[in-house]
Structure formats: C-alpha cells, structure tokens
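Long-time lurker. I teach an intro course on protein structure, and each term I like to show students one example going from raw sequence to a predicted 3D structure in token notation. This year I'd like something fresh instead of my usual example. Would anyone be willing to generate the tokens for the chain below so I can use it in lecture? Attribution to the forum is fine with me.
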Amino acid sequence: MRRFFTWMVFGAFTGGVVSTLAAPFVLQTLLASTGARDALCQCLELVNNTSSLLIKTQVWGVIIGAVLFPTGAWITKRLWARRKARKAVPPAGTPTPPTTPSGPA
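-- Reply from a regular --
Happy to contribute to a lecture. Here you go:
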C-alpha cells in the first residue's frame, strides 16, 4: 500500500509539473480563440480567467498524474511478474534429468 501511495504522490507531482509547463500554450490557444489578444480588453477579467484556467489545468494534471502513474506501475509489475513466471517454468517438451544418485555403490 505504501508503494501505491508513493507512485500516486510521484504521479501527482509529475502531473502538476507537466500541466504547469503545458498550461501557457493551452491558455494562449484558448485566449486567442476568444479574441482576448485585442489591445482594448477587460484586463481584470482576463487576469481572473487566466489564473482560474491555470489553476484548473494544474488540478487536472495532478489528478491525471495521480491516477495514471500507479495504474502504469501496477500494469508494469503484473506484466513483469508474468514474464518472470514464464521463464521459470520449463517448456513441456524438455526432458527432466533422472534423480538417481550417482557415485560409488
């Protein structure tokens, strides 16, 4: 359980960082589509909307990272365990060596 929470915290942190880095591009695209690049704008409203969108983007990044990282770690762990289990089982056609003791009789 501790490992799960570690992955969740790591994912949340990484999601927050990625969303913070991606948010300016996303916000620029969203604000450009609303015509906010005009010289005459409602600056207070623009700042409020931009900061609100930035915080929402960061929260979504944290949530997505907190879900995806533990899920990916769990899937990787299961696949790795299956791979190890397949290597441990000898193929069906492989003869097993005799178990009779050898040595002086």
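Some talking points for your students: The longest helix spans residues 43-88. The two ends are 56 Å apart (CA to CA).
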